[in-house]
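Subject: Sanity check before I submit

Could someone independently write out the structure tokens for this chain? I want to compare against mine line by line before I put it in a report. The sequence has 74 residues.
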Amino acid sequence: MPTIEMKDHVYKILELVGSSEKSIEDAIQNAISRASKTVRDMKWFEVVQTRGHIEGGSVGHYQVTLRVGFTLES
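---
Independent answer below. Compare away.
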């Protein structure tokens, strides 16, 4: 029977703020897409806060604060 190596996962948490004029989902994607250019091994995210800016009686843009976990390199 082969031995299966199990690794313990250790994550570092990074806080990001993404924004978008379109939607909350787009604000999340903008933050993750931009961070992925410099941060490797991102594994999960958690929305911590959602807010927006009002212009002329309607939503001008959405802003979302995320906590993103990424795996530490060995």
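---
OP: Matches mine. For the report I'm noting this point. The mean pLDDT is 90.
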